[in-house]
Amino acid sequence: MLGRFKLxxxxxxxxxxxxxxxxxxxxxxxxxxxxxxxxxxxxTVPYPSTSALINDLNHICNEHKDPxxxxxxxxxxxxxxxxANGAINGPRKTHLDILVQYFPGGSTPxxxxxxxxxxxxxxxxxxRTNTGQRQSWCWQSRYCGGILDEAFRWENINAxxxxxxxxxxxYPGINVHWYVTYEANLVWFGNTGYSTSIRQAYEAxxxxxxxxxxxxYGTSAVVWSPAFWSKYYSVPYSSRVNIKNQLNTxxxxxxxxxxxxxxxxxxxxxxxxxxxxxxxxADVRRWYNLLNSxxxxxxxxxxxxxxxxxxxxxxxxxxxDYDRWGIPLGASFSMKTWSNTTLGVLSHKxx
Length: 351
Prior knowledge:
Elements: H1 2-17, E1 39-44, H2 50-63, E2 73-79, H3 90-99, E3 114-117, H4 136-139, H5 142-148, H6 150-170, E4 177-180, H7 195-217, E5 222-224, H8 237-256, E6 265-269, H9 281-292, E7 300-304, H10 312-324, E8 331-334, H11 335-338
Parallel strand pairs: 1-2, 1-8, 2-3, 3-4, 4-5, 5-6, 6-7
Helix pairs in contact: 2-3, 5-7, 6-7, 7-8
């Protein structure tokens, strides 16, 4: 009972932070057996078509906005809002013009909160100098070699600042928060010879990014969605302890060097959509408990339930597991896939 009360208070605090109103009676994860659970959606621009974008947004507004229902859609997380240099134009701009009308401050607000993604540049490791003589598995991954490259980190940060400036100048009346698009494999924070260096690099990146975004968000929240790429017990106990300690240190340091801002929301990926079979819901629960046991407290700690190409019945079983364990869902499916009628997910309360 105490654990559920603590979770309830944490969720209420998260929405209070963002200025949103939430009925405490609906703050807990839904109690269901049909795979329905409250969640948020990712939206990538440009969308497949303008008509599909409008149809899907209107469907959410009409069918998934009753707070008393299990299939409530909370927030929208928008990805790919700018090109690699931070420019917002062409089809992106066309679809953003439509999207923002459904955000807080828009003409027909439909989402509780809207998060705008930062720039996520390609890691062109073949054209970079491996000054640290790092092993190939590390150097070729943007989550090791890329993040360890200071110049590449700043390329991402500076382009994100340009994108944020462009977005706010184009849509000054729209109230948004920020989504850190650059992901991470959190297992590498504790089980490689590069673990401390990786933690320090992400720490530097997050500090730099949040500080350059400060002028554009005020009291807005920052959400990040990294992942654990390995099953819980496949990672040795000593490495799990190191992961927890490294993450705890990083998040506290980021908060200390961003005027107390830090990363407010952590919606970590369950890694069960893009890599089916590599993770189980039981592993996700254990990783969730590890994060929840840190001294650093997130305003919102949730699971990003991946969709990709997995089957609807598998989604339902996964959601039921998370619901049974009291693990809330955060930013999850991509709207364009979630709304695909071939999956049969458009009908009310399918999800």
